[in-house]
Amino acid sequence: MRRWLAVLVLGLASATALAIDTEVAFPDAARQQRYDRWIHELRCVQCQNAAIADSPVGLASDLRRQVKEMIASGQSDDEIRRFMTERYGDFVLYDPPLKPRTYFLWAAPALFLLITVGVAARVIVRRSKGPIDSDPEEPA
Amino acid sequence: MWRYFAPAVAFLALGGLFAYALMRIDQGKLDIREIQSPLIGKAAPAFVLPSLTDPPHQIDSHALAGKPYILNVWGTWCGECRAEHPALMALARTSGLPIIGLDWKDEHSDARAYLAQLGNPYAEVAADDVGRTAIDWGVYGAPETFLVSADGIVLAKHIGAISEAVWEKKFAPHLKNGGRS
């Protein structure tokens, strides 16, 4: 009785999960976790703004099948990454690798933060020296 | 004085950049959805697939070696493929190259009816029912067209409907040295 109750509760819970891929791919937690991580890491290149885990298009389900098969046959994360990027480029990864082409991409947040802090510091220093609203460049 | 204008100048510069990019997209000169294929300059992925038009026969990509060919990914479920069909028919006549069709995850009977109705530009049509060959070729949307050299190297790829203009600009220049890579 309790088992059936659990099945019912879990069944109802999964119905509200809204995920496209609700089927459990692996019986063991370790491989299931790897699978879940990969299908959230790979972009659905067809729809471009969703992971293959969240996309209903045919190509996304084909790529989920590919990931499942590669994990089932014992292939490493590096092998899966290579398989996908050899075919679809780095764009397929939501976590792009650090290399000359992506230096700016990775440096941009720090760069913008630096610029903002620099500008803020200048403004604060200048304002702390004189009364507010005075412009040092304009004659009083 | 400049500091009163600096924000306005920065705003106009950024706005100008956005306007320029949007204009290029509008004119079809910039395609933000296009992903550069990592396959260009590399060996074309091999495949052995059943023929759509001649069912027991298998199409082996190794048999295509020796002269350049065009590979066109299509499906009857793909609206833009229908739109590009006349251009493919013209290419089949004018390009001098065989066009190999890759019928991607399609219903065979529908695909045969489609070719019977609209004409068949393909030298051969390989049926990729499970989509594995499409994955090997990095296909993410149909139609897609590849140009493969005589020595089996992917020379160019076009995403979206092919046209004579696209052919002249993206594909034809690669064929000047006899289609070798």
Provide a short characterization of the protein structure:
The complex is a heterodimer of chains A (140) and B (181). With 140 residues, chain A is mainly α. Chain A has helices at 2-15, 29-41, 58-72, 77-88, 103-129.
Strand proportion of chain B? 15-25%
Report the order of strands and helices of chain A.
HHHHH
Total strands of chain B? 7
Number of helices of chain B: 5
Rg calc of chain B: 20 Å
Terminal residue distance of chain B: 59 Å
CATH architecture of the largest domain in chain B: 3-Layer(aba) Sandwich
Topology:
The complex is a heterodimer of chains A (about 140) and B (about 180).
Chain A: H1 2-15, H2 29-41, H3 58-72, H4 77-88, H5 103-129
Chain B: H1 2-26, E1 48-50, E2 58-60, E3 69-74, H2 79-94, E4 99-104, H3 108-118, E5 124-128, H4 132-136, E6 144-148, E7 154-159, H5 164-171
Parallel strand pairs in B: 3-4, 4-5
Antiparallel strand pairs in B: 1-2, 3-6, 6-7
Task: Describe the structure in your own words.
The complex is a heterodimer of chains A (140) and B (181). Chain A is built from five helices and no strands. In chain A, helix 2 (29-41) packs antiparallel against helix 3. Chain A starts with a helix and ends in an 11-residue tail after the last helix. Chain A has two domains: 17-97, Cytochrome C biogenesis protein (Helicase, Ruva Protein, domain 3, Orthogonal Bundle), CATH 1.10.8.640; 99-129. Chain A is 58% helix and 0% strand. With 140 residues, chain A is mainly α. Chain B has two domains: 1-32; 37-175, Glutaredoxin (3-Layer(aba) Sandwich), CATH 3.40.30.10. Chain B has five helices and seven strands. Chain B is α/β, with parallel strands linked by helices. In chain B, the strands form two sheets. A five-stranded mixed beta sheet of chain B has the order 5-4-3-6-7. In chain B, strands 1-2 form a two-stranded antiparallel ribbon. The longest helix of chain B has 25 residues, at 2-26. In chain B, a hairpin with a 5-residue loop joins strand 6 (144-148) and strand 7 (154-159). Chains A and B meet through helix 3 and helix 4 of A and helix 4 of B.
